[in-house]
Amino acid sequence: xxxxxxxxxxxxxxxLFFTSKGIKKPTVDLQFSGVHEAIQMIKAGYGxxxxxxxxxxxxxxxxxxxxxxxxGIEIVVRGxxxxxxx
Length: 86
Description:
By secondary structure, this protein is mostly helical. The protein has one domain (1-86). 35% of the residues lie in helices and 5% in strands. The chain has three helices and two strands. The protein has helices spanning 8-19, 35-43, 53-61, and strands at 2-3, 31-32. Strands 1-2 form a two-stranded parallel ribbon. The longest helix has 12 residues, at 8-19. The protein is globular and about 50 Å long. The mean pLDDT is 79. Pfam families: LysR_substrate. Residues 2-69 form the LysR substrate-binding domain. This is LysR substrate-binding domain-containing protein. InterPro entries: LysR_subst-bd (IPR005119). It comes from Bacillus safensis.
């Protein structure tokens, strides 16, 4: 399952496939326009995807979904917050 084009998690997942030796670019069978929709499909058993850990913290804690660790792949989270209107 994949997020919509332009999603940062989709871009990150594709970049991992392009830079990892021996891994082909994934085939997109299901595409969703939001992380919440993708998480609901994971809970329903439709596949796997890459989502922000904060988005699934509660689901992981309740053991509604599982987490997969891939050796040699580390995702570094960087964020930037701004306030507008001042």
